[in-house]
Every structure is written in structure tokens, then in C-alpha cells.
Amino acid sequence: MAKKKHHAQHKTAPALFKDIQLIRQSDAEWQIPQQSPMRVPCHVFATDAVRATLDSATLRQACNVATLPGIVTASMVMPDAHSGYGFPIGGVAAFDPDAGGVICAGGVGFDIACGVRTLVTGLTPDDVLGKRTQLADALFRSIPCGVGTGGAIPLASVSLEAMLTGGAKWAVAQGYGTQADLDHTEEGGFMRGARPEFVSAEAKKRFMDQLGTLGSGNHYMEVQRVTDIYDATAALAFGIAVDDILLSIHCGSRGLGHQIGTDFLPRMADKADYFGITLPEKELACAPIFSDLGQEYLGAMRAGINCALANRQVLTHLARGVFAECYPHSRLRMIYDVSHNTCKEEQHMVNGKKRLLHVHRKGATRAFGPGHPELPAFCRSVGQPVIVGGSMGTPSYILAGCTDSAKSFCSANHGAGRSMSRTTARKTIHGKEMLAVLDRMGITIRTSDMRSIAEEAPEAYKNINAVVEATEKAGLARRVARAVPLICIKG
């Protein structure tokens, strides 16, 4: 690799792509043609209704991603996309290390492996409606949530290192779950290739008392009722039926993941000239995958993935304890655990040839289709469960990966996607009024911060029904089940 002299100030390209044209490819697919300095076009998955929600900042960011070295096929925009840090949230891009491909910390995000796991409780709607307040209060007492909240399971330095290597598999070995949980988790519950030695002392310090905590923002624990089944075969494989009561847990790697991003982004930016990379904006700071810096970030990021998997596993253990107290006959069985905000090494067909790529999914979910060899036996014939979490007060969906999803590197959206910034939401939506509205809808909320009620109100997000329709029409995933919230625990 040719190396250039390192300078303190990296090169940043002038503002690009002020005139962006979307050219229709189908009812739910659009293309932004390649223009200099883009290396590939952009593919946008959206119906007309969803396209109207995509602002110019989101599309410009997708075009910026298309300029990065080693990108393959296209910079992709999922139906729930909105502008983020460098990469759009809902952005997908794959890079070939053999073609100078890069790893981009902004293309993973700060909340590494934030994700959702959903469980079937074995309860009926009458069970929950008869004890709704009792269950909500018990979950809120037992599930630590909110900014800076510590958990009940402090980590010693030696166990933290083991957790960063072992993920949910480590948590199960400590007694916080079962092998069946791991069988229903991506990667079997832990990400190989984690290198805790590349996670800073500050990042580790931030997580020492955060194991088994929800955090804040859009993270939640939600009790839901299945209202609709769309694909009976997949629903049977996933073990869900109408009127099942589900528990969904949405959280990530907390302060550790955020600190990994904070640590590596400036290092990547400072090395841009050294690697000969001209950045369209500094938030897209990156490093060649085969570089020492690229390998260090990958090792740290994989440790962050394991952190998130362990965190959701311990939260599952805590929730099982609450349900056992309130409902001794309950049995919380995992459907699946999916992560977003990751970069994973995967084989994909490109122009008829199988290539080993590093697929960035920022605010996007892996969606392997039927028959994929990496899927566990229970879902291999129908496709991977894809859990699309709703905003507070709106439905959530369980989808299944499609064969067609190969065109998006087997990726789908992870939620509805914001239509309003948190700042704007706080200014225009009143938390107490929203609580009253949700109560009239039959949704019980418990929160440690009233501001989050405004920030996560349904009005602050796109219409999830329209987004899921776009996902299905684009062939990224198909609907299996719909569930509505009954109880929501928030930070």
C-alpha cells in the first residue's frame, strides 16, 4: 500500500451532491446515478409514501458513503432511513478488503450492536390485563433504566474481559439463560474475533456497572400482544400465534460502545492523509480494513457487539425473574435476537462471483433469506426473523428475510425511523399529555425521564405501517406478525 506523509489536518472534499436525482427502478426502488467522485450509485428502497419522508441530508450522506474506497455495488438506503453521523441511519454499505475497502466507525454507529430480542411469554391477554399495573411496576423496579443508571451485577475487570470475548454465551455460562437462548441469537450469542485489548480503559470503566441495564433514548422493554399473523408457515416456525403475549427488549452496548466510537473516530480522521483517503466529510473517517488501525477497530467493535449481546441476555434473565413472580406458569421463550449498528464479515455474490465483504449496517438489520447456511435450524426453511420495533405507542412487526434480500446484502430496516429530531420533539410534544393519550390507548408507561416520552412519541417517527409495506414491496423481508404494546418500560 502506498503511504503518504501524515498531516495533522486530513483532507475533506468540498460540499458535494447539491443536485440529487432519484430515478425510479420499481414501485419500491430508486437509484441515484453514480457521479464523480462516487465509486458506485445509491440504491434507495422506498415506496412513494416513504420517499416523501427522505430529506436531502439523508440522500447526500448516502452519496458521500458511495465515495469511500472499496465500496461494492451501491450505497444503500433502507425505508426507515434518516440522517445520522456520517452514514445515514438506515444505511447499508459493503466493502471489499481486497479492493482497498475500509471500515468506518460512523458506519457502525456509537451504540454498537444496539438491537432487539423478542420472547414469547406463554401468557394470554387476560393474564396481563388483570395484572397490568402490578406487572408494569415490578418490571420498572427490577429493570435499571435511564441515563447513567447502574445495574445490580457489577463486573470485575477479569469478568469484563471474559464478557467482551464471550457475549451472551458468557452470560449463559454464568447462569443468566439457557442454550436455547443462544440457539435463537445471531452468531450463536457471541461474535468471534473480539479483541478486548483494543477497547480503551475509559470504555471499560463506563460499563463496569452497566450490565443488565436498558439505558435511555429509544431503548425499551415492552410487553406486547400479537394481533395479526400474515405468514402462517413462518409464524409456526417462529412459535407465535394471535393473542400471544410477547416481551421485546431493545438496548445496546451502553457507554462502552459509545466510547469505542468516540475513541476511534478521531484516530481514523487523523490517519486519513496517511492512508491517502479524501473524506467527503470528517464524520466518515475510516481506515483500510487490512491496516493496523482497521484491525484494531474491528476487534474493539466485535467486543462491543459481545457487550450488547451479554447485556440483552442479562436483561432477559432479570425479566424472567419478574414474570416468574407475577405469573408462576409463564415461560419466556426466545424467538430471536437481532443486532443493528454492526459491521460483519460475510460472503455475498457480486456479479456472479462470491466475495468476502465487510457489510456495514447502521440502523439496519441482517435479513438472511430461506436456506441460508448460517441460519439456525428452526428458521432455515422460512428465513431469518427480522424484528422491526415500533416507536412508543405504535405496533411492532416480526418479518422474515426473503431470497430477494440478497440485493441489499441481506439487509432490512430496523424500525420506523425518526421524522423529527429529539430536540424538535421536546419543543412540540408535551410528555404528560402524551402519557394521557397512551393511557387512553390502553398502554401503560413507566419511565425515569419524562422528556423521553416526548422524544419517542409516535409523532416523532415515520409511519411504521408504511415503512414495513415498503420493506415488503422492495423484497427485503416479508411480514409474519404484528404486535401492539400493552406495557412499555423506558429510560
Q: What descriptive keywords fit this protein?
A:
about 500 residues, alpha+beta, eight-stranded mixed beta sheet, globular, disordered N terminus
Explain how this protein is built.
The protein is of the alpha+beta class and 491 residues long. It has helices at 48-51, 56-65, 125-130, 132-142, 157-173, 179-183, 201-207, 232-238, 254-270, 272-275, 292-326, 422-428, 431-440, 450-455, 464-473, and strands spanning 23-26, 29-32, 42-45, 71-82, 89-95, 102-104, 115-120, 220-229, 245-251, 286-288, 333-339, 342-350, 353-362, 364-366, 385-388, 396-401, 411-413, 444-447, 477-490. The strands form 4 sheets. Strands 7, 8, 9, 11, 15, 16, 18 and 19 form an 8-stranded mixed beta sheet that branches. A 7-stranded mixed beta sheet has the order 1-2-3-4-5-13-12, sandwiched between helices. A two-stranded antiparallel ribbon has the order 6-10. The longest helix is centred in the middle third of the chain and has 35 residues, at 292-326. It is globular, with a radius of gyration of 21 Å. It starts with 22 loop residues before the first strand and ends with a strand.
